[in-house]
């Protein structure tokens, strides 16, 4: 999937990119057979992304389901706790995890693409720009790499997102099984049924991921530089992972706000039927007009809670996986407090 560094070096010589681990970070990589920015490194990051995104999204399925239902019908529940109480009373544990299977599959695939390709594009763009330029414009590099990765990740996610939303927001059970739901969408709408929400998904996920990665990287850097007394490499793995969790939650709050209107549109697109001859674009415009300004922000509170928690644990799982593989945690470098 990922070209080797030898192949990439043809773009701009075999120079060392600024994102390579510094000698001060050796304690994290000395016993690891994985070379930073090698193909094996990218595959390891992709595997960490599977765990980070798949497990966290699945764990928060109840909150995600309530958020989707409130976006489709904002008067359905008074709030997240009211929704949890009503669903658990009426449908039990099974009802809380409605749509869990496509959530687990879809976001595992998305995490693989998101984290694996982020590291790959970060390396690629740093080599194309050159070490000095890449170091000077680190935030631009983070934004470009994360946006590129998310374009690919969403193509992998979109079919499962369509099934998940249909299962969670249909007034009558959409399908009795995961495979039954796939067959039902395919029979009724064909391939378009799985990908009609791709553009709105991009509109939701690309800004979300750009904020997620850039804010996380800059927050980690700021914590070590301005709030802690020692360089990153002088802290234990546990302390570094604590920084990871804190920076992840901070990034998640911004992610939720930036991407929420598009998230509402995705939920409605997979719930509202097209009129005869109506295009997906026309349907989206109609939905936005019906929702109004207040409507596109419905469900924001549970989504902030969900995305903040989700993003924090995603980064925590991802960095924990890297540490177990003998790699350094993400971000921070060895910047010293001035």
Q: Could you say which overall geometry the principal axes of the C-alpha atoms support? A: globular
Averaged pLDDT: 84
Q: Output the number of helix runs.
A: 14
Fraction of residues in β-strands? under 5%
Kindly report how far apart the N and C termini lie. 41 Å
The CATH class turns out to be Mainly Alpha
The main sheet comes to:
none
Protein name: Cu/Pi carrier
Subcellular location: Mitochondrion inner membrane
GO molecular function: phosphate transmembrane transporter activity
InterPro entries: MCP_dom_sf, MCP_transmembrane, SLC25A3/Pic2/Mir1-like
Question: What do you see in this structure?
Answer:
The chain has one domain: Alpha/alpha barrel (Mitochondrial carrier fold). Helices cover 75% and strands 0% of the residues. The protein is built from 14 helices and no strands. α8 packs across α11. Keywords: Membrane, Mitochondrion, Mitochondrion inner membrane, Repeat, Transit peptide, Transmembrane, Transmembrane helix, Transport. It is a multi-pass membrane protein. InterPro entries: MCP_dom_sf (IPR023395), MCP_transmembrane (IPR018108), SLC25A3/Pic2/Mir1-like (IPR044677). Belongs to the mitochondrial carrier (TC 2.A.29) family.
